[in-house]
Design brief:
By secondary structure, the protein is an alpha/beta fold. The protein has one domain: Alpha/Beta hydrolase fold, catalytic domain (Rossmann fold, 3-Layer(aba) Sandwich), CATH 3.40.50.1820. It is built from 9 helices and 8 strands. The chain has helices at residues 4-23, 27-34, 87-94, 115-129, 140-154, 178-181, 191-202, 236-248, 273-288, and strands spanning 45-52, 55-62, 68-73, 98-103, 134-138, 163-166, 225-230, 253-258. The N and C termini lie far apart (43 Å).
């Protein structure tokens, strides 16, 4: 059963965000909406500028001491946001025992596909060379996290030990399923907004490319995956179908569909029970699959 705060939060997102997103048609408009201040930065965490693999980003470190190593890939439709905008999520995860690097990858439409992927892979090549690590991300960041695994396999790079994926976009081709049934139920996204974002990110690229739509990749050999998604999201089936595909390939997969919550509800961990539950479960999942502590090297200084 959803909490009362979940209903209130979804109503607020619908009334304040969905309409402006549906009318947005250029990157500047989307950025004003996506990057508007939301929740305060969590306390008990240090935020430090850094560079990994030649890509600028931000270290998020728990003050309590070193945590397990995580690469967090932020969302924002591939066209907006930054490590700074995502501190409500990364700070909350750091407080759950992770030392995190968040890359400030290049954004479309100025830098369309494959720029973001190239940056993420440059970071992963350097980050994974320092020791075992997990990966997490939401929305566009969840997409890039899934693509990272396929690219790591193709490039003979280390795999993450596990991944937590919050409402990832996995299919840029299909317009069926929840893209239709939840078109009016989703508190945040009108399908028109998704279509505009899709065009800016893809440019002339093929949406069926597995590096764009990981649903078309072979997930054989992927590490354990956790998917959290909202039941009312237009992206619901992106998680459901990807989880089914991963399980069919023998990947240890956990899927949880949350009622009522809006897209990226994890930002509201300070006020929303479902956000705390999602982050608690993700942290527990990642830690349960982590290698022995001695297998993890210390994160380099920023």
């Amino acid at each position: 059963m959803a909490s009362l705060r979940a209903y209130i939060g979804a109503y607020m997102i619908r009334s304040r965000v969905r309409g402006p997103l549906a009318k947005a048609r250029d990157a500047a408009a989307f950025r004003r909406i996506f990057e508007a201040p939301t929740f305060p930065d969590p306390k008990g965490v240090r935020y430090e500028a850094g560079i990994v693999g030649g890509v600028r980003g931000e270290w998020v470190r728990p003050k309590a001491g070193p945590g397990r190593r995580m690469l967090y890939i932020h969302g924002g439709g591939f066209i907006a946001c930054s490590p700074r905008t995502h501190r409500p999520v990364t700070g909350a995860l750091a407080n759950r025992g992770f030392t995190i690097f968040v890359p400030d990858y290049r954004l479309a439409p100025e830098h369309p596909f494959p720029a973001a992927l190239e940056d993420v892979m440059a970071v992963w090549a350097a980050f994974s060379a320092e020791g075992a690590a997990c990966v997490a991300g939401e929305s566009a960041g969840g997409n890039l996290a899934l693509v990272l695994m396929g690219e790591a396999r193709a490039r003979n790079l280390p795999m993450p030990w596990a991944a937590a994926l919050f409402s990832p976009a996995t299919d840029f081709v299909s317009e069926a399923g929840s893209r239709v049934t939840n078109a009016w139920r989703d508190a945040m996204f009108d399908p028109k907004a998704l279509a505009a974002i899709r065009s800016m990110y893809l440019g002339a690229a093929d949406p069926a490319d597995p590096r764009i739509s990981p649903i078309y990749a072979d997930p054989t050999g992927y590490p354990p995956l956790l998917f959290h998604v909202g039941e009312r999201e237009v992206l619901r089936d992106d998680s459901v179908r990807m989880a089914e595909r991963a399980r069919a390939a023998g990947v240890a997969t956990t899927l949880r569909v949350f009622p009522v919550v809006s897209h990226a509800w994890q930002f509201a961990a300070g006020v929303l029970p479902e956000a705390r539950t999602s982050l608690d479960e993700a942290a527990a999942f990642l830690k349960a699959h982590a290698p022995a502590p001695q297998a993890q090297a210390r994160s380099p200084a920023p």
